[in-house]
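Q: Fold this one first, please.
A: Sequence and structure below.
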Amino acid sequence: MVKQKKILITGVNGLVGYRLSEYLREMTSWSVIGTSRKKGPMVDCIADLTKKVDVERIKKSIQPDVIIHTAAIVGANECDKYPEICYTTNVDATANLCEIFSNSYFIYFSTCAVYDTPTGRCNELCETSASNYYVQTKLEAEEYVKKMNNHVILRPSVIFGFVDHHKNNNYFMQLLEIIRSKRVMYSPRDQFFNPIYVDTVVDILVKIIESDVQGIYNIGSTEVISKYEFNSLLMEIFDLDRNYIEGVTSEFFSVKRPQMGTISSEKIQRDLPYHIPTLIEMFERLHSTSKEKIEAYLISS
């Protein structure tokens, strides 16, 4: 393990922030401070990052070597519905952190949805464009991060995992919630992506911190799968009722999303180095750690 580090993680009530904070506290000797707007098991400091005074208050208590900025509004529908809140949360908060912690190693979570090409398989040099307002805010926030001397911008595909400590809308939890409420998930057959398990993301983040790499990196599975196929496979592995899923086309949805939102993660694997597990290996890891919790979740009210 590398020398002692001070780590500031934003958004620790979210999927990645929570799991990363949990892992670092248990498995390393690093000093970890977690922030969020609300109380939570991993929250050390309640703060509104859109307010400079709150960010300055955090700086008085910690001079972090590394900032991992996961806090964001990630729903395209929500961003379209509440554009001002989306902008302040995704852009202004990032700008405040970059300004006030200008000397820290800054790891920022953007999105692979910045790529919107008919062919997909985008590497980090592919052209970017905003297919919706959420993506627009992430691209604007990236520009602040790029001005930092030491930074990594991560453009992940959909990150999935099980969360039982609070409400979370990651793709897998959406599926479980729909099944629990006995509704049907309408899942696109013509939208393709490279989903990645949250614990794999944590593995990658630890390697990034240890290696001090710089630049933009895609992170996702090395396999391409449709969202319908992804959900169907998870339902098969966890023996869930297939009557709760229906395959549809993209025209079914009001918010536009890239149909071929696929990426190449060769660069991150080469530079760290790190081998991203197969989707089946990720599913098996999820199954081995969460099967009983998922069963209990589905029968709870």
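Q: Good. Now the second chain.
A: Here it is, same layout.
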Amino acid sequence: MVAGVFAEFEHEHDLEALPPHTDGRPRTRMTDELSWRSPTGLLGHVADAVLVRRTLAELLADHDAEIVRRLGRAGSA
């Protein structure tokens, strides 16, 4: 992260080749990994527990839905 509200933030994608579909179409599994550290010590830990973790999970769910929308279910397992 270059700048933002987090003291640290990292978002990585892990791409794993899967065996092809029975019809021969290739498949790939993408896994998101997030790590972050909120600022302000104890207050940041409370924010993580109450708000940040849930908000980031919702963000990833939206991210996943957008990938499915753009690529269609044809590419899913």
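Q: Anything worth noting on the second one?
A: The helical segments are 41-71.
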